[in-house]
Amino acid sequence: MKFIIGNWKMNGSKEEKESMLKSLKGLKTKNKVVLCLPFTLLCGENHGITIGAQDVSNHDNGAYTGDISAKMLKDTGAEYVIVGHSERRLYHFETNEIVKQKATMAIKNGIIPIVCIGETMEEKNSGHTIAVIKKMLLESIPDSGEYIVAYEPRWAIGTGLTPSESEIVTAVKSVFDALPNPMPILYGGSVNADNAQDIVSIPYVDGLLIGGASLKSDTFLPIIKSVK
Ligand code: PEP
């Protein structure tokens, strides 16, 4: 069983959610499919499909206007939450410390965090990938509980570029070796139906985190079907 997790980012209407969930419901797969939706689409009928969120507050509750707590997420039926996505680290200045607090808050409320890490192109070109992702990993993961790690090179997100197989195995093995306990490790960054099966066949890769290609059933379903 491999994880295939879609990240809709800031996209999607009620109608689009309904249509995607209906197509997923009819699909036979041994993979674990999760759809991480924007907050506005978390409530409502999910047709038995596993739903996740894309962010969570690092606070329990209180005067944090606009934020959504892990307890509120749990209330919607969300079972997973992405934390520390590179877009949140970049545009919302989320540090490893904040990401760890968010992951910890999710676990405390019975939600599995998907902790994202990944290097920039500059860090890759200067030969610092492994040092960078190890530091991000060890400073971002919670001290205990169940979580997932997503290795997403920043330069591969939404660009059509992907690392070579040997770059992925080196990075993902370094994550595997650094983890205090074994946890699933995903790859994310420009996954499509043509490269999905090759990427999940790489040692230590337990699944995929998919952005753009998860938005439409025309592109998401072929990925799910291609992963054996
Ligand atoms: C992502 O946003 O997590 C992602 C992997 O995006 P994309 O698949 O579009 O590169």
Task: Indicate the topology.
Layout: E1 3-7, H1 14-25, E2 32-36, E3 50-53, H2 70-76, E4 80-83, H3 86-91, H4 96-108, E5 112-117, H5 121-125, H6 129-140, E6 148-151, H7 165-178, E7 185-188, H8 196-200, E8 207-210, H9 217-226
Parallel strand pairs: 1-2, 1-8, 2-3, 3-4, 4-5, 5-6, 6-7, 7-8
Helix pairs in contact: 4-6, 6-7
The structure holds phosphoenolpyruvate (PEP).
Phosphoenolpyruvate (PEP) is lined by residues 7, 152, 157-158, 188-191, 209-213.
Your description of this structure?
By secondary structure, the protein is of the alpha/beta class. Helix content is 37%, strand content 16%. Strands 1-2-3-4-5-6-7-8 form an eight-stranded parallel barrel. Helix 4 (96-108) packs across helix 6 (129-140) and helix 6 packs parallel to helix 7. The radius of gyration is 16 Å and the shape is globular. The chain binds phosphoenolpyruvate. Phosphoenolpyruvate binds at residues 7, 152, 157-158, 188-191, 209-213.
How many strands?
Answer: 8
Ligands present: phosphoenolpyruvate
Low-confidence stretches: none
Query: Which structural class is indicated by helix and strand composition?
Result: alpha/beta
- Our measurement of the CA-to-CA distance between the termini, rounded to an integer number of angstroms, reads 8 Å
Order of helices and strands: EHEEHEHHEHHEHEHEH
